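Possible regression after last week's pipeline update?

I re-ran a chain I had predicted before the update to compare outputs. Posting the input and the new output here so someone can diff against the archived version. Not blocking, just want to make sure nothing changed silently.
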Amino acid sequence: MCIECWKESIVIGAEECGLQLTKEQVECLAGSVEGTFENYSLAHSYPSPSDIAQTNNDVWERKYKELETKFRLYKQEAECAVKTILEMPSHAEISIENDGVIRHI
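New output (post-update):
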């Protein structure tokens, strides 16, 4: 979890108990809670927040690469279809720009 989440939780808990903490006290307690949470995660075989973040990042990178590949294939197929419709030779080079404009290279 992010340190900001722990800070918010500590501030809310302190207010509910009628405690007034300084910013430094909240930061110190949040750091301790974060460390305790990481140790608990390790002791009980839960992934650490950084492991979870890395896994999420890996998943999104893989999805992004898959979408890039699909887009590239879609674009190639669209260029082929345009050549067929315009009765251009298959070796003609065209490009479909991001704005949809077709360019003959």
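Follow-up from reviewer: compared with the archived run. The chain has two domains: 1-46, 57-105. Marking as no regression found.
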